[in-house]
Amino acid sequence: MVTSATPGDGKTLTAISLARVRAESYRYTVLLVDADLRRPSIPSVVDLGDGSGLSDALRSATERKLALVSITPRLTLLPAGQPIANSIEALTSPRMRQILEEATARFDWVILDAPPVGPATDARLLTQMVGGTLFVIHAGQT
Fold first, then answer.
1. What percentage of the chain exceeds 90 in pLDDT?
2. Average pLDDT in the 136-140 region?
3. Phi, psi of 99 (to 5 degrees)
4. pTM for the whole structure
5. Which of 11, 21, 52, 111 is deepest in the core (most CB within 10 A)?
6. How far is CA 84 from the centre of its chain?
């Protein structure tokens, strides 16, 4: 998981760069998950089309296919989808755990672009579901 203290510290750029290097230079299969369900930021970097994604799968009453976007043969993106106000309930749901378990079984690396820890508790709750956290610090500011 990649997070930061505040918005604008560079966590999304770091998550995208880490995913690309792992996929292209080291030849791993990588899933990059935009886990910032309040303010998705990856769509500002990558054109994603219809806007469906993780939030839609988490809010669905039935288990639905994930809206995965193939960026390269080794790099896949799971967009955040439509922003939701109550992201804590969605991110701590059994469905979220199931999605992460299935992703780790299918991909060599799963990288979550999580929200910053300052404004919301989402990233702190996600730490229980990931193997490690990369904390991005804005040099000279954070």
1. 75
2. 92
3. -60, -45
4. 0.93
5. 11
6. 15
pLDDT above 70 for 47 = no
Strand order in the sheet with 134-136: 69-70, 75-78, 30-34, 109-113, 2-4, 134-136
Q: Are strands 134-136 and 69-70 parallel, antiparallel or unpaired?
A: unpaired
Number of H helices, E strands in the chain: 5, 6
Separation in Å, CA 33 to CA 83, 103, 115, 116, 140: 14, 10, 12, 15, 28
Q: Chain centroid to CA 32: how far?
A: 6
Residue with tokens 């579901």: 129
Residue whose structure tokens are 């954070």 = 142
Q: Summarize pLDDT for 71-129 with one digit per residue, the tens.
A: 999 999 999 998 988 899 999 999 999 999 999 999 999 999 999 998 788 999 999 99
**1 with 134: CB under 8 angstroms?**
yes
**Tokens 């967009």 identify what position?**
79
DSSP type of residue 114 = P
Which helix or strand (DSSP H or E) is residue 81 part of? none
